[in-house]
Design a protein that fits this description.
Blueprint (H helix, E strand, L loop, with lengths): L2 E4 L6 H8 L3 E4 L16 H6 L3 E5 L11 H20 L5 E4 L9 H16 L8 E4 L12 H11 L5 E6 H6 L7 H9 L4 E3 L2 E2 L10 E2 L8 H11 L3 E3 L6 H11 L1
């Protein structure tokens, strides 16, 4: 199992990954709060050549499900651009949140928009890396909060070779999904888990709040988190508070 962490706003994430002794790291390729096109990374060649794997997390404002053209269209473009930037780094995927609709909007249209993302890109030769759709924590109109929603989403995108899945434990907990046996239930829908975001939660079950905690300090039993990591059989990324990441890595390595 390859274990690592998200390295936030790090000028040289590969050097930090080497210092931490991790097998895989997650990074942004642009300001996660903006629509800026990614710039060439000065460390791209070193990252590509390193034995340490890399995965890219997309910027947060992306919402390809949206029915609002002014949000959906730039979201599609941003996914295309950031997937290309991820490929330049040799990344094994681009993580994209499931997105959401507004009150009163038709959920079917949102799921259709996810299918159109892949359809339109296929006309351009497809995405350069897999798009790892991540389950989300809150919102009554989220595209990937519940297993029912993920099932509807996968009915639209599951046939595309570049559609993958990222399971976030804090998001699932906050979204009201029992973590015990969750891996099996997800795989029964998607057939795959390509990446695990292993995070504890600062909030109680089904809170709808996305606030990560270090592995041994949240409301989720740490042994349950370990069981999820073991069952998924996928690379594990910690998105826990930065000061506690070394301890989280040590705990997880020992537990596994």
């Amino acid at each position: 199992m390859r274990i690592g962490a998200h390295l936030r706003e790090d000028a040289d994430p590969l050097a930090t990954a080497e210092e931490l002794g991790i097998d895989v790291f997650q990074m942004f390729v642009t300001d996660p709060q903006s629509w800026k096109k990614p710039e060439p990374n000065p460390h791209a060649a070193a990252i590509r050549d390193s034995p340490i794997d890399v995965v890219v997390h997309s910027s947060y404002q992306i919402n390809v499900a949206s029915l609002n053209n002014r949000l959906r269209m730039p979201s599609r473009k941003a996914v295309e651009q950031q997937a290309a930037a991820a490929a330049e780094l040799g990344a094994f995927g681009l993580v994209v949140h499931g997105g959401h609709l507004r009150d009163g909007e038709d959920a079917k249209a949102g799921f259709d928009n996810w299918r159109k993302l892949f359809d339109r890109q296929q006309d351009k030769g497809g995405f350069e890396v897999p798009i790892l759709i991540e389950n989300t924590a809150g919102g009554d109109h989220a595209m990937a909060r519940t297993l029912e929603a993920i099932d509807r989403l996968w009915a639209e995108v599951g046939d595309f070779d570049t559609a993958g899945f990222c399971l976030d434990t804090c998001h699932a907990w906050a979204g009201g999904e029992d973590l015990v046996g969750l891996v099996e239930r997800v795989k029964a829908i998607t057939g795959r888990i390509d990446l695990v975001h292993l995070n504890n939660s600062r909030d109680e079950f089904d809170s709808g709040r996305d606030r990560h905690a270090n592995l041994e300090s949240g409301h989720i039993d740490p042994s349950v988190l370990v069981a999820v990591a073991e069952a998924a059989g996928a690379p594990v990324i910690l998105e826990t508070p930065g000061d506690g990441v070394p301890d989280d890595l040590a705990y997880l390595r020992d537990a596994l």
